[in-house]
Amino acid sequence: MPKCCSCIALKSGIRKIFNKKNLFYEDANRKDFSSFLWCECPRTYVMYRCLMFIFSLGWLISHLERNYRTGTLAEFMLYLTHWFEIIFNVYLLLSVATAMVEIRKNSVLTEIQLEKESASKEVVESTEEVDHLEKDDADSLQGRKSLRWYHKCTWYSYESSLVGSLLITIVYWSYLWTGTSVKENPFDIYQHGLNCVILFIDLSITRLPIKLAHAVQHSLFVFMFMMFSLAVSYIRYAKGYEKLAIYWILDWMNYTKCAVLITLGIFPAMFLLQVVIVGANQVKLNLHRKFTNNSTAVLMRQDI
Predict the structure, then answer these.
(1) Stretch 92-104: mean pLDDT
(2) How far apart are CA 226 and CA 17, in angstroms?
(3) Is 118 exposed, middle or buried (0-12, 13-18, 19+ CB in 10 A)?
(4) Which domain holds residue 79?
(5) CA-CA distance, 90 to 195, in Å (whole number)?
């Protein structure tokens, strides 16, 4: 029997989304890491990144200092919220460094390109080697060269921070909030709400793409935390601790079925959250296309 057209289209779409370039953070433009979507202002972009990093780092240091005063510093790395808080700061630091590297490289390559254009007016004939070098430099200027490790780390931490902020905000206010007032613990508002707002503002003005295929890495990361919580529970049980679970919904001893269901459900949940941020990114790109005249290239390149 001939295959159904819809099945063929679905298979083709899945292959396109989960191809090698998407899975391994290769389908992006270097220019995405050093300029805004709405305007190309490299210096302003770096200043914006620096201010964001200083603001976020201030909150992290204040949080660590508070834990030190209350004698809970040793427990800081037990919570998923704090894992994503650190990833957020790593993202901002990497984004500053990556933007500065790209701006410096673009400045040097632009000078080289201008020199070669000037020289080409005087020299009529050119060798194949020179032609190859010129093409390579032009590709570098237009961002078509392959991404380096720091681009990929920045890209991963960016998306991970977005998905993580959504996850912890929803889970915290739905299941974990105990009625603590903002005055008692202002870090609750920052970690479980304000950081989410900041990241979506960041999403609305930056050029970094978002891929549905990256839900695989984010799901594995959260699954790794689930296994970490299981190990912590058994270690605490072996040492005779009264409190075994990091979170009550991940109480592997008393609510094993609940913990198993949550762990298995994290994979579809992370894909759903990735769909949300992919959708938000597409809305941003559509608005950019509507209000500007030079967004065609950006929109064609940023597939899901």
Answers:
(1) 93
(2) 27
(3) exposed
(4) 27-207
(5) 14
pTM of the model: 0.84
Helical packing angle, 80-122 and 149-171, nearest 10°: 150
**148-190 confidence digits (pLDDT tens):** 999 999 999 999 999 999 999 999 988 888 776 566 677 888 8
Assess whether 202 and 246 both reside in one domain: no
Distance CA 178, CA 192 (A): 13
Both 201 and 266 in one domain: the answer is no
Q: Are residues 191 and 241 in the same domain?
A: no
Q: Which two tokens stand for residue 190?
A: 């920052």
pLDDT at 156: 96
Number of domains in the chain: 2
Coil vs helix vs strand at 245: coil
Which tokens in the block code for residue 227? 């296994």
Q: How far apart are CA 280 and CA 203, in angstroms?
A: 8
Q: Is residue 250 located within the same domain as residue 150?
A: no
Task: Examine residue 183 and state whether it is found in any structural domain, yes or no.
Answer: yes
Same domain, 236 and 91: no
Model confidence at 104, pLDDT cuts 50, 70, 90, reads confident
DSSP 8-state symbol, 138? H
- Region class of 27: left (phi > 0), else alpha (psi between -120 and 50), else beta: beta
**Structure tokens belonging to residue 5:** 């057209």
Do residues 109 and 231 share a domain?
no
139 and 221 in one domain? no
In a domain, 102, yes or no: yes
